[in-house]
Write a structure and sequence with these properties.
mainly alpha, Glutathione S-transferase Yfyf (Class Pi), Chain A, domain 2, 4 domains
């Protein structure tokens, strides 16, 4: 026995308590539901009192059918309408009898008093299934055990008291924490107030002597900046400032280092060699903090190795980026001059590309640019690439074959 749940649900909703469907919709729904009831009635008439033939007690399938028909049989269908489906009515009664008093009470006995074969929409407050214990809500049940009720009440009271005690303990703990924080804050303010006089006097002394310190620092900076480029900055001529100033400390040193050739490695030296190639940035991109970080680290390592006795060399790299560079330069000359690379010709266009690349070097300010010769990126990048040299193949006898 199969039923279309979707179809029956769509039809049954027009007969739910308080449904406001039209008469035509209700008539269509009633016809659909009566057809389903007729099929069920035929099946039950042949199978016996229950859905599964030969069973002596209701199964879950019987319970499901009785539950789905409870609303129709108790509130919607009149006595005459129910009489048309005698096998279904008998099935309901057998399930109630076999299921016991609780089963019968749950499915209800408040059948419609209408003796006709009509169907009536129940009021909106109608309950299809009775609410257990509704009539005994105020008294605790007519058959309730007084001792059990007393024990349940005592248990509930004990649980409530325990919860209240836990809440009170939490509240007391929170108040104690607040009081401790307030005490610590008050002590901190008192300590600050007591030390206020000493701090104030120290601050005034510092402000009083600040003018002299500033004048000394200014004089030291002026002396450092007055050292000619490339000349040695003698400590006798440039006094040490009271406060550290990078401009003062770094002034003139870098130019003197370059003049003395401290960054130039000695060719043919027996010292151990140390070389780093600056990883070339994307020539068509913009320099960012990542480039500054990596090159600062490389600069530090190269200086450290040179101080450790190595012949150190920091070689600049360059990004070829042929297609990308060509595109950028083409757009540049088209935008600024209104010409194309074809107008310039191959040689002139290559000169423009190299000129553009040389204007975008990656040289951190005051970096340890340790080149054997002050070669430009143009010189380095325009050299032909040497052919790859591979070891000659050994003979089979040398390979042991």
């Amino acid at each position: 026995m199969e039923f279309s749940v979707t179809t029956l649900d769509a039809s049954a909703k027009h007969w739910l308590p308080g449904a406001a469907s039209s008469e035509s919709r209700r008539a269509e729904a009633r016809a659909t539901l009566e057809a389903a009831l007729a099929g069920l009635d035929v099946h039950l008439a042949a199978a016996g009192p229950f859905l599964v033939k030969g069973t002596a007690a209701p199964t879950l399938a019987d319970v499901a059918v009785v539950s789905s028909l409870a609303g129709l049989f108790t509130h919607v269908m009149g006595a005459g309408a129910r009489a048309k489906f005698a096998a279904v009515a008998r099935h309901r009664a057998e399930c109630a009898a076999k299921g016991g008093a609780a089963f019968a009470e749950f499915f209800g006995e408040s059948l419609s008093a209408d003796a006709s074969d009509g169907w009536t929409v129940p009021p909106a407050d109608a309950a299809v299934f009775p609410i257990p214990g509704k009539d005994d809500a105020d008294t605790g049940g007519a058959d309730a055990d007084p001792d059990a009720a007393k024990a349940a009440a005592e248990k509930a009271a004990a649980k409530k008291a325990k919860k209240a005690a836990e809440n009170a303990a939490k509240k007391a703990k929170l108040e104690a924490k607040k009081a401790k924080l307030a005490e610590m804050e008050a002590a901190k303010k008192a300590k600050a107030a007591a030390a206020g006089g000493d701090e104030g006097s120290s601050k005034k002394k510092k402000e009083k002597s600040g003018g002299d310190a500033d004048d000394a620092d200014k004089a030291s900076l002026a002396a450092a900046l007055a050292v000619p480029k490339g000349e040695f900055k003698s400590p006798d001529a440039v006094p040490m400032a009271k406060a550290y100033n990078p401009s003062n400390v770094e002034a003139a040193w870098y130019e003197w280092w370059e003049k003395e050739g401290f960054f130039k490695p000695e060719l043919g030296s027996n010292k151990p060699k140390f070389v780093i190639v600056i990883p070339p940035p994307n020539v068509t991109g913009a320099l960012h903090i990542g480039h500054a970080l990596t090159n600062s680290i490389q600069d530090t390592i190269v200086r450290w190795r040179r101080m450790g006795g190595y012949e150190a060399l920091w070689v600049p790299g360059t990004d070829h980026a042929g297609i990308a560079t060509q595109t950028v330069v083409e757009k540049k000359i088209q935008r600024e001059e209104g010409i194309t690379r074809h107008d310039l010709g191959r040689e002139k266009f290559l000169e423009r590309v190299m000129e553009w690349k040389v204007r975008r070097p990656l040289f951190p300010k005051n970096a340890s640019r340790v080149f054997a010769r002050r070669e430009t990126i143009e010189t380095v990048s325009s050299r032909p690439v040497p052919p790859l040299r591979t070891p000659r193949a050994r003979s089979r006898s040398a390979r042991g074959q």
